[in-house]
Amino acid sequence: MTVATKTKSQQSHSQQAIRQALSLCRRHQQPISLLAIEMSEVAALAAEIGHERTQTVTQHIGRVLNTHKRCEDILVRYSTGSIMLAVLPATPATGANALAERLMSQFEKPLQVDEFQIEVPLRVGVHTSVDNKHITANRLINDAVKLLRQPGMHNHILLSPQTQTLLAREAGHPGEHNIVEELLQQQQGSSTAAFIDTLMPALSAMEEQDRMILVDRLLELSTRNPSRLACQ
């Protein structure tokens, strides 16, 4: 297989994964977020420590991202090979930004490779789309990747204009965020039965049609995450 064929294969796989996640979010009217993750200054790093050690750094980045992403997230390589895409289904701007910060925190300490201590030069572009009716996988990828191509931008986390707007909007409705945080805390601090009992009044008050949508979402989640142990 030639390099060109590999590149086309990677691009096709990336787009297929994003199309599936986009279809799910569109069906359930949920946002979708993408993180475009790139090791910057690759040429300069390779000149300093050598190509093989640079490859070791790249592999380390891939392992860390795969370990610390969430179960429902999808990690794929962009066609250029130097960019990883993290596809975040049903994730609003606040969640995408928080995940980007959490991933970046994993690279705060220098990486020891032979006699070198390497500060991993990583940047993350964060893009969130809410109105996905006419959005394509290509458009999502381009909107995320182009954040890494902005001249004069040296921030480690780069937010798209859409993401910045959504973050400002979500910050204006703190009550919704507090409810989510409270439920997450209850889920982590209670038994499964107690947590379900907490949800029952709200579930009972839902219309039957809405409950069917919830059942569909739960089944979709079970299909994607067949074993809870796989998420640990």
Overview in brief:
By secondary structure, this protein is α+β, with helices and mostly antiparallel strands. The chain is built from nine helices and seven strands, in the order αβααββαβββαβαααα. It is globular and about 65 Å long.
Describe it for me?
With 232 residues, the chain is of the alpha+beta class. The chain folds into 2 domains: 3-171, 2-Layer Sandwich (Alpha-Beta Plaits); 174-231, no CATH class. Helices cover 56% and strands 16% of the residues. The chain has 9 helices and 7 strands, in the order αβααββαβββαβαααα. Strands 2-3-1-6-7 form a 5-stranded mixed beta sheet, sandwiched between helices. It has a two-stranded antiparallel sheet with strand order 4-5. β2 and β3 (83-89) form a beta hairpin. It is globular. InterPro entries: GGDEF_dom, Nucleotide_cyclase, Rev_trsase/Diguanyl_cyclase. Residues 30-161 form the GGDEF domain.
